[in-house]
Amino acid sequence: MTQSSTQGGTANRQGKILEKTIIPTFEARGFDVIQYSDWSKKKDKYGTELLLKHVPYTTIYGHQGYTEFLARSERYSLNHRIECKWQQSSGSVDEKFPYLYLNCIEAMPEQNIIIITGGGGMKEGVIRWLKRVVLERRYLPDGVEEKNINIFSLEEFILWANKILQ
To answer: Global pTM?
Structure first.
């Protein structure tokens, strides 16, 4: 069985479609889409309206993690980390949400974080749980600055983008 024909390979391909859907939302508003690693080496080379891809952070376990995007904009006053989670059939994404949430509040340096979910294959209650812990600000450690975490479906994300990126 090749990587591309495994269940994990299929899930990865489907998840990439969600990620690729985010990019035109920012490109249509004048954002340049750049790999974080390229930008971090020569920040002066790039403008102020950026959608950085494959953005690193140090996880709660102390190793390197990545999120799909970091939207940075002077025009819109953005510095939003964006994580995409797609689950079209049963799988392990459900179990990753508590880890993702703890990384959002403890490890990701940005104050504003967007989690975009889709696929309709997550277990019942997963997104409801995630939205509840965000709303209740659960597990937020003492001394952590304000965190604004938004949980969006793809449709909700586009609505947010249409409102914020005018």
So the answer is: 0.89
Give 52-95 pLDDT, tens digit per residue: 999 999 999 999 999 999 999 999 999 999 999 988 777 777 88
Give me the residue label for tokens 């993690």. Answer: 65
- Residues with Cβ within 8 Å of 25's Cβ and at least 6 positions away in sequence, in order, are 157, 158, 161, 165
Provide the b/e sequence for 110-138 (b: ≥16 CB within 10 Å). bebbbbbbbbeebeeebbeebeebbeeee
Q: In the chain, which ranges are continuous DSSP H helix? A: 7-27, 36-41, 93-102, 126-136, 154-164
d(CA 150, CA 12): 23
Place of tokens 């490890």: 107
The whole-angstrom separation of Cα 18 and Cα 114 is: 14
Residue 7's pLDDT is what?
66
The strand pair at 64-73 and 78-86 is best described as antiparallel
> How much is the average pLDDT of 138-150?
84
pLDDT at 66: 97
Structure tokens at 44: 């002066």
Nearest to 35 by CA among 16, 52, 18: 52
